[in-house]
Amino acid sequence: MENRTKIGKYLLLSVLLCFYNLSVLSQINSVIEKTKSKDWEPLLDASLSKWDVWTGVPEPGVLGLPANYNVPNQGKPTEPIGLGDPMGIYKVAVKNGEPILNIEAHVYAGLTSKKDYANYHLTALVKFGDKKYPPRLNQKRDNGILYHCYGEHGAFWKVWKRCLEMQVQETDMGDLYLLAGTDAKARVDDTNHWTKDGTRFSKNAKRSEDFENPHGEWTRIDLYVVGDSAIHVVNGQVVMALEDAKDHKGRALTSGQIQIQSEAADCFYKDLNIRPISKFPKKVRKAAGF
């Protein structure tokens, strides 16, 4: 009788573990599954019709430069290539009807939305390729979603506009960076990592934790923007919340273009969509401490 009881307990435990694992798997799949809503505007197509490209300064030794691009006698390029993509950095492959953005990041560049956006939810699946390029051969694979971009191209490093950045970098997805004089505040702990209960504010704050999937797997990123506040989400987890965004002249920064960086590591995006929102979703707002 005692043995039967033990066997029953083991069977019950096995069933519970099975249901638990299925539940966890379901949660993971719900994060990376394709977005479904009539409100979503797809941002990718085969011709990248909703985007422009600004190509920055190539590293010395980069091949295939445009014929009219001038390299000084000492062989070190100093000026950006400019508007357009003569280096073929941003390409789209359509697989099973789905456009996938391939960033061949051998030159710093910015894929720049033709439209300005305010009060929105942006979502995408992202993963890194294997190739890295100078000057970041020995550094983490890096990319970024730049938002509230404004002004002239090349304000930052002769490549990107003035903006806020949701970092897309290995183990650092969701970090906050402020480019070319912009400003914002994020609550942080003593290690400069974001926490909704932070007792001080910081610029260029670190994400709370690393929720990125392993290299080669797709990671879901979500960016929520309402007014001068924003929330960064990685695989369904809030990792950064910021407020009081300002431009380089101290004015409220509430809208702008979106840029997707090319920053010396091959990267892929798919299921890139945007939809308007008037307020943060309740669960996201609560997790962000707003």
Description of the structure:
The strands form two sheets. Strands 1, 4, 5, 7, 11, 12, 13, 14, 15 and 17 form a ten-stranded antiparallel β-sheet that branches. Residues 2-30 have low confidence and may be disordered. A hairpin with a 2-residue loop joins strand 13 (219-226) and strand 14. By secondary structure, this protein is mostly beta strands. The termini are far apart. Helix content is 13%, strand content 38%. It is globular and about 55 Å long.
Quickly list its features.
single chain; 290 residues; disordered N terminus; ten-stranded antiparallel sheet; seven-stranded antiparallel sheet; mainly beta
Helix content: 10-25%
Order of SSEs: HEEEEEEEEEEEEEEEEEH
Multimeric state of these chains?
single chain
Strand element count: 17
Give the overall shape.
Answer: globular
Uncertain segments are 2-30
Q: How would you classify the helix and strand content by structural class? A: mainly beta
Structure in a nutshell:
With 290 residues, this protein is mainly beta. 13% of the residues lie in helices and 38% in strands.
Please describe the topology of this protein.
Elements: H1 2-32, E1 41-42, E2 51-55, E3 82-83, E4 90-95, E5 98-103, E6 109-113, E7 120-132, E8 142-150, E9 162-169, E10 176-179, E11 183-188, E12 200-202, E13 219-226, E14 229-234, E15 237-246, E16 257-262, E17 265-276, H2 282-288
Antiparallel strand pairs: 1-17, 2-3, 2-6, 4-5, 5-17, 6-16, 7-13, 7-17, 8-9, 8-16, 9-10, 11-12, 11-15, 13-14, 14-15
